[in-house]
Amino acid sequence: MRLLKSLAPQEPRRGLAIDEVLLNSTRETHEDLMRLWINDRVVVVGRSQAVQDEVDLAFAAEQGIPVLRRISGGGTVYHYDGNLNITVALHDGRRIGSVHEVFRFFGRAIATALVGLCPAVRFDANDLLVDEAKLGGAAQARRGNAVLYHTTVLVWPPQIAMDWLLLAMGPEYHPQRVASRPRTTRSLREATEAGDSLAMETIADLITVSITDALGSAPTVSRLTDEEERRANTLAETKYGDDAWNRSI
User: Fold this and answer.
1) What is the pTM of this model?
2) Phi, psi of 74 (to 5 degrees)
3) Which of 60, 61, 160, 195 has the greatest number of CB atoms lying within 10 Å of its CB?
């Protein structure tokens, strides 16, 4: 299994473009992969959501926070430098099973990785929880037999309260399209005694071991190929840099 890890915050359009490129790569090469990465500040809406129903666009613009659309379903999330993204692309998702089985499989693996640090961590459907607070949320995209699973883990809290950006956190939320599932959020730093000493690298390594063990696949450190770099740069500039995609619904 290819392992790509970059824990420096990156330009958000490129961050999303790489996920799409890697899904296509695993279909072409039949080589599974895992990616651990961090986006700079961005609001990311699900594939079938209406942007105006999900995001306070005026506040996002005032704060200089872009609003982008990803290729997977699910609800709207806020990425920032304390939010670890985990992506797994499998060339044949049938080895895990249905959409629900994939959520269970990876949710269990990530919870197993973190429970030693925070015994209250558990998974529920596509959410990762600390008690009843949300620690992360997962989504999937499928092309043929290939599946892209990606999720977030809040390692430390954001400087901007999520309810200032995400309309689902407010009382007047009435979406016309696919709805987000609002929950109070809590980061690992807030939920553990380790506090500020809790390192992103530590969380990334724990999750890597747990997921690769669950899959029975040893990780091989990798990087984007030249062709993957080219495709990602093109997608970042065209698809993810175009309102025709990001504001299409």
Assistant:
1) 0.95
2) 90, -170
3) 60
pLDDT of residue 107: 97
- Taking a C-beta distance cutoff of 8 angstroms, is the pair 188, 118 a contact? yes
For the chain, the helix, strand and coil percentages under 3-state DSSP, each to the nearest 5: 40, 25, 35
The rounded distance, in Å, linking the Cα atoms of 96 and 135 is 24
How many separate domains does the chain show? 1
Asked, for residue 24, whether it belongs to a domain, the answer is yes
Residue 193 corresponds to which tokens in the numbers above? 């005694």
215 within a domain of the structure (yes/no): yes
Residue 130 lies in a domain: yes
- Averaged pLDDT for residues 93-106: 96
User: pLDDT by residue (tens digit) across 126-150?
Assistant: 999 999 999 999 999 999 999 999 9
Domain with 72, as residue range(s), is 2-238
Amino acid identity of 193? E
CA–CA dist 240, 16 (Å, integer): 8
Q: 14, 70 in Cβ contact below 8 A?
A: no
Q: Helices marked H in the chain — which ranges?
A: 12-29, 51-54, 57-63, 99-114, 162-165, 188-191, 200-215, 226-237, 243-246
Q: How many angstroms separate the CA atoms of 135 and 207, rounded?
A: 14
**What pLDDT, on a 0 to 100 scale, did the predictor assign at position 194?**
75
